[in-house]
Amino acid sequence: MPNYTLINEKLLEVAVAGEEVYSKKGAMVAFTGDITFARSFLAGGGVQDLAMRQVTGEAFQVMTARGHGNVYYAYRGFFVLSIALAGETMYIESESLLAFDGRLRTGTAFLGNQGLVQGWPAA
Questions:
Q1: For residue 52, which of 7, 10, 109 has the smallest C-alpha distance?
Q2: How far apart are CA 1 and CA 108, in angstroms?
């Protein structure tokens, strides 16, 4: 499973050992090792989640990092907060989500004219 380490208040290091890590498009600032990157349409979710994002107008663009090494993420100088979930459900504005892996199930919640990404630990 990927290991997340805050390097400082604005930079996150993710150690990847063969898993997939999903991130906001444009958030990868550096990497070491043998890592490949690709656009992800499902972002760990399913086709139903993709359809819900289309219906709600959620423009959550995600990249996948896969391989062995370290990936460094930051976005527009924003502060980074790492939150560990243990059975809880959390609702997050998609613009605030930086990086996650397959242990988090994602979904989209319809809130009127707004769309949110929701996440909970995968079973």
A1: 109
A2: 24
Looking up residue 55, the CATH number of its domain turns out to be 3.60.160.10
Give the model's confidence band at 81: pLDDT under 50 very low, under 70 low, under 90 confident, else very high.
very high
| CA nearest neighbour of 101 among 12, 26, 19 | 19
The residue range of the domain holding 111 is 3-121
Query: Using CB atoms within 10 A of its CB, is residue 17 exposed (0-12), middle (13-18) or buried (19+)?
Result: exposed
CA distance 12 to 46: 26
For the chain, what is the domain count?
Answer: 1
pTM for the whole structure? 0.76
**Residue 60 DSSP SS3:** coil
The order of strands in the sheet holding 90-92 is 90-92, 114-121, 104-111
As a residue count, the chain comes to: 123
Cβ–Cβ under 8 Å, residues 91 and 38: no
CA distance 58 to 61: 9
For residue 118, give the amino acid letter. Q
